[in-house]
Amino acid sequence: MPSTAQENFTIDPMAFRQALGSFATGVTVVTAKSDSEESKNIYVGTTASSFNSVSLDPPLVLWSIDKRARSLPVYENAEYFAVNVLAADQVSLSNHFARQQDDKFAGIEFETGIGGAPLLKGCAARFQCRTCHVYEGGDHLIIVGEVLDFDTSGRKGLMFHSGRYVVSSFHPCNQDAREEADQSPAFVDDYLHYLVGKSFEHIMQKLKVVLREQGLDENEFRVLASLGGVSGCTLEELIHNSILSEDEVNEHLRHLETLGLLKREYTEEETRIHLSEAGEQRLEPMLKAAKSNEADALGVFTAEEARQLKTSLRKLIAWTV
C-alpha cells in the first residue's frame, strides 16, 4: 500500500507542467470539419503535442483537447479528424494554430481529406482518422481515432521540449545514422554563389507575399528594415545596411517619402533619415513575417548549427567588404 506521505502529496501545477516538459514530443495540428450549420467557421484546427499511438491492429491513435477550447464541440462531435505532424520548418504554422482567432484557415493552403478534414501541406506525416471513442480525462477530453489513411514525406519532424521548439538528430550510438556518401554533385549544386543565392530565394518566397500585400517591393523593404529599431541613418549608412547602390537608395527614398513612411532630420553636421510613425506601423507586420519566416528556415538546424550558420555568413560578409 502507498504510504501516508504519498497519499497526502500535493501536486504543484507549475512544477508538474515543467516536469512533463522533460518529455520531448512531436508537434501536430489536429483538424476537423464542423457538421453544424450554426458554426461560424466550417473548419477547425488546433496545435497539439498530446498525439500518441494506441494500437497497430487495428491502427488507433489518440490526442487530447482542453475542455475550455472554443473548438471543443466540433472535435467532440466530428466523425472524422486529421492529425498533421508538422515538419521542422513549420514553426510559424504551429504558432498560428496555437493562437485563438476567428478563422484559422484564412490564407492557409490545405487539401480536403476524409470527411472534409483539412490536410495541411508540407507536413512530415498526416493521419486521417475516424473517431472511435471520446473519454473523460480530467480537464481534457481524450479522443481516440481509427487511422483510415496516412502519408509521409520523409521530412524531419518539429519537436517540443521544456517549453521550446527543438529539432531532432541521431544519437552517436546509432551506427546507421550516417550521411550518404558524397555523390559528386553537379557544379552548381556545390558552388557557393549558387547555394547562397538559391537559399536566399527560398527564404524570401513567403516574405514576398507579405510585401505584395503591403504594396512594397523587396528593395523598399530593405530600406525600411535598415531604419527599424535605430535612431535614424545617414545616407552612407543606409547604402551599407541595405546592400543597395546610392542611386537605388535615393530612388527608393523618394518613393517612400511620398508615401509618408520616412522623414529627414537636418543638422549642421549631417542629415539623418528616420522612419515616420506611419513607416513604423507599415514595417511592423513585415518584420513579424520576416522573423516567422526565419524561424521556419532555421527549423532544419539545431540551435548550435543555426548559430554557426549566422557566424559563418558574417565572416563571409566581412571578407567581401
Automatic annotation (TrEMBL):
Query: Where would I find the HTH marR-type domain in this sequence?
Result: 189-318
Domain of life of the source: Bacteria
Stated EC number for the protein is: 1.5.1.-
* PROSITE patterns in the cross-refs: HTH_MARR_2
Q: Which GO terms describe its molecular function?
A: DNA-binding transcription factor activity; FMN binding; monooxygenase activity; riboflavin reductase (NADPH) activity
Q: What class of enzyme is it?
A: oxidoreductase
For this protein, the record's Gene3D superfamilies field holds: Electron Transport, Fmn-binding Protein, Chain A, Winged helix-like DNA-binding domain superfamily/Winged helix DNA-binding domain
What keywords tag this UniProt record? Monooxygenase, Oxidoreductase
Q: Which family does it belong to?
A: Belongs to the non-flavoprotein flavin reductase family.
Q: Which PANTHER family match?
A: FLAVIN REDUCTASE, FLAVIN-DEPENDENT MONOOXYGENASE, REDUCTASE SUBUNIT HSAB
Q: Identify this protein by name.
A: 3-hydroxy-9,10-secoandrosta-1,3,5(10)-triene-9, 17-dione monooxygenase reductase component
Originating species: Pseudoteredinibacter isoporae
